[in-house]
Write a structure and sequence with these properties.
globular, binds NADP nicotinamide-adenine-dinucleotide phosphate, two-stranded parallel sheet, Rossmann fold, eight-stranded mixed beta sheet
Length: 289
């Protein structure tokens, strides 16, 4: 014989069982698949990122951890043959390029929609405004061939220094400079064009003396070749180790982006040439050797 209390408990259990069975037979609200992710996001938001729901863990968090916020990367000399490729690589990486251009610079069709700032490098206020809020600057300016032999001094030395000073003023910490093999040499045929290699070294030194996180990329002779670059390896070396050989501009542009993503490249002068005979390796791997 069951006592009073036991009979009461048995009745309650039966009542709960019946309720559960009835609920499971009720038609369930079918949420469309697209609504699950926003709901999970809201749950994460409401409960705080420290306490994700299981659903959020499975659907939202893997995406959040794999996807970073797009960076804004300024490219000066973005109308040049290396500069526009840097901008393309920035887009390819899912970041936002900001093109720093001269008044008359021509921008390739595919970059027309990008954020553009037209200015003179000597105009400090305009340069500061153009660099405001960017995460990094890639300097791809360089003197174009000209009968004015002061152009390399004005672009490759003073022009770089003006950009460095502007980064310091507005707080852009990370800068990659495209310079050249043999920068700093006095005796070199390229110096027939206004001592360009001497002025390039002065530009590099402005960066080295700054408080910025800098990388100098010194490429060999630049080519326009775009074919079969995936199998082409890069010879990386420190300063003044290489003095010949070439590299396609596309690979230089990729190196600039790779430098931005390689902390070990900060404070380094990296010389690069390329060859199909070399195994492609990551910059970080080369720097660790
Ligand atoms: N050519 C080579 O074999 C070689 C080898 C090693 C290193 N480099 C160096 O690599 C870099 C890229 O070379 P590249 O041949 O790809 O460049 P590029 O096609 O000659 O382009 C030069 C860029 O610099 C800009 N620029 C020139 N004078 C300027 C000024 N006063 N103010 C602002 N911008 C100015 C140009 O703007 P505009 O379009 O308005 O003229 C252009 O965007 C350069 O520093 C170059 O010296 C070249």
């Amino acid at each position: 014989m069951l006592g009073m209390q036991e009979r009461h408990q048995a009745a309650q259990t039966e009542h709960h069982e019946r309720q559960r069975t009835e609920q499971s037979q009720e038609p369930q609200a079918q949420w469309p698949a697209w609504i699950h992710r926003p709901i999970a996001v809201v749950k994460v938001w409401r409960h705080g990122a420290q306490r994700p729901t299981d659903q959020a863990r499975q659907t939202v968090l893997p995406k959040l951890t794999h996807r970073r916020m797009p960076r804004t990367i300024a490219i000066s000399g973005a109308s040049g043959k290396t500069g526009y490729r840097v901008a393309e690589e920035v887009l390819q990486a899912g970041d936002q390029p900001r093109l720093l251009l001269q008044e008359h610079s021509l921008v390739p069709e595919q970059l027309q929609g990008c954020d553009q700032h037209r200015l003179r490098l000597g105009d400090a206020a305009a340069l500061d405004a153009a660099l405001q809020g960017v995460d990094a600057l890639v300097i791809a300016t360089g003197a174009r061939p000209s009968i004015d032999l002061t152009t390399p001094l004005r672009v490759d030395a003073w022009g770089v220094e003006q950009q460095v000073r502007s980064c310091e003023r507005v707080g852009v910490q990370r800068v990659v400079l495209v310079s050249s093999l043999c920068a700093g040499r006095w005796l070199h045929p390229l110096n027939l064009f206004g001592l360009i290699l001497v002025w390039k070294r002065l530009g590099e030194q402005a960066l080295e003396r700054s408080r910025l996180e800098w990388t100098v990329i010194r490429p060999g002779g630049l080519s326009e070749r775009e074919e079969q670059l995936e199998q082409e390896g890069i010879r990386y070396s420190g300063a003044d180790q290489q003095d010949s050989a070439s590299i396609p501009r596309r690979l230089v542009a990729r190196c600039c982006l790779e430098a931005l993503n390689t902390p070990a490249s900060i404070g380094q002068i990296i010389e690069i040439t390329s060859s199909c005979d070399l195994e492609p390796i990551a910059m970080a791997q080369a720097l660790a050797r």
